[in-house]
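[SOLVED] Need 3D model of a two-part complex

Original post:
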Amino acid sequence: MHSALINVPAKAKRGDVIEIKTLMSHIMETGYRHTVSGETVPRDIITNFACRFNGSEIFRADLFPAIAANPFFSFFTTVTESGKFEFEWIGDLGFSETAAASITVE
Amino acid sequence: MNFPRTMAIAGVLVATAVAAAEIPQEQRRSGFSFMTPETQAMQNDDTTNPGMLWVLDGEALWKRKAGAADKACADCHGDAAASMKGVAAHYPAFDKALGRPIDLEQRINLCRTGQQQATPLAFESRDLLGLTAFVARQSRGSPIEAGADPQLEPFIARGRALYGQRQGQLNLACANCHDDNWDKRLAGSAITQGHATGYPLYRLEWQTLGSLQRRLRACLTGIRAQAYDFGSPELIELELYLMSRARGLPTESPAVRP
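Solution:
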């Protein structure tokens, strides 16, 4: 079960700089830890995050084992037209989650 | 030789000292007020508070049918925003059938085994934390009212005694830090008054949501005492005492702590 929290303003004026905040639930297991019996706990992290606006990419990030669980991103963009933000998280062990949020530009 | 009388006087003095050390009502404040503005902002915004991820999970579980009875929480309790409002602020509460107090996690598990005829959820499991966070979230802002039931008095008294009892290799009681030294710092961190206003809460150190029982067990390990088992009467009595001590402070669940 994976939940995401997205914060995109519902409305903005043309040319406004808006802040986008995303929070994704994930354990971000580093791959450097061992069990009591000495076996390595396999790495299980999110490796890529991307945000697209009306199909074109506006933000991308690569993630690494030192990043804490439940990664939080905050970034800014200028809005010029109404449309849809699409978010995608990709990670180890086939992890793939998406979310979307719409904005009305006046 | 007046030894027994001396001992009796010493006993009275100790008892007075312990009672006097309790934090006056008007000085009681949540751990929230000890945090940096950044961590406070993280808790206050539902899209940056990681505890809300568990609330979302809990909301899904609330509506999902479970057990041999094939019933969801929502089938009996309906809309949690109405039926669960203020409920968490009263826990731990006295359970008539068991004749002892139970905390919110145990209440949820009693519903699971009794009403849903499902297996109980393990302490600190993601599902139990999620359901507890979702139920507790409905009480956000409600003043804590735990311990008002007169049947709870002997249990609160036992919790208070445990709170004041020195134990472990460091020979410390909860009160030595959280009543006597809450205005100081330990290894750079604020000590706080130990009011359990926001559980289950997201600790940045844990990188996950955790229960008050987990927090208490971590404190016990910290003073190098043998931690009580999850669900043990001692932990419930400590929870109950802490919540009755925090009476009147607003519920913050799910809170964020450093």
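Edit: Chain A touches chain B at residues 1, 3-7, 21, 23, 25, 28, 68-70, 72 (CB under 8 Å).
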